[in-house]
Write a structure and sequence with these properties.
This protein has one domain: 3-Layer(aba) Sandwich (Protein Transport Mog1p, Chain A), CATH 3.40.1000. It has four helices and seven strands. This is Putative secreted protein. Keywords: Membrane, Transmembrane, Transmembrane helix. InterPro entries: DUF4245.
């Protein structure tokens, strides 16, 4: 049933009643949220403590550019965990634990990864290490695993969501 006394003004009001909520919904769902602030971890004191307490030689990045953000630093139970965000927002982690060739530790960190060859990388201290390559179980991350035997045995794992070359480049900063 049509209203005989309807005017153009009534039509504009009706359109506004429909369009204003539609525009509000569009704005709400189409806007890009602000980038969340990533907390920065103070990793150098953690590494200093680990070097004092650990029964193995601690490897930590040296000479990383200021554009790399440390986001995780923890040492406890003879295990060191460090995490960094690259300028491209790619996460890299270094995990070390006392004891050489620990299958459970390697399996957990590499997320049930499979061995994928070897890499030879010289660390920042100039020491060449042979690393076993692992592709994580979800095939998203690449990891390098180094086991040191002897008086101070340890297992070091470096992972990143980049090809092996990127993980090798990061590993070369370790000292």
């Amino acid at each position: 049933m049509r209203n005989q006394r309807a005017t153009g003004r009534d039509m504009i009001i009706s359109l506004a009643v429909i369009l204003l909520p539609a525009m509000a919904i569009y704005y709400f769902f189409s806007r890009t949220p602000a980038e969340p602030e990533v907390p920065v971890a103070d990793w150098k004191p953690v590494v200093a403590d680990a070097r004092t307490e650990a029964p193995y030689d601690i490897l930590a990045p040296s000479n990383l550019p200021e554009t790399w953000k440390p986001v995780r630093a923890r040492y406890g139970n003879d295990e060191l965990q460090l995490g960094f965000l690259s300028p491209d927002k790619v996460y890299f982690e270094v995990k070390q634990r006392v004891g050489a060739n620990q299958p459970g530790f390697i399996s957990t960190v590499t997320r049930e990864g499979r061995q994928d060859g070897t890499s030879e990388v010289a660390t920042a201290a100039g020491v060449k290490r042979t690393w076993k390559r692992y592709l994580t179980g979800d095939e998203r991350s690449h990891c390098l695993v180094s086991a040191v035997e002897g008086k101070r045995p340890s297992t070091t794992i470096v992972c990143g969501d980049v090809p092996y070359e990127g993980v090798e480049a990061f590993s070369s900063t370790l000292a």
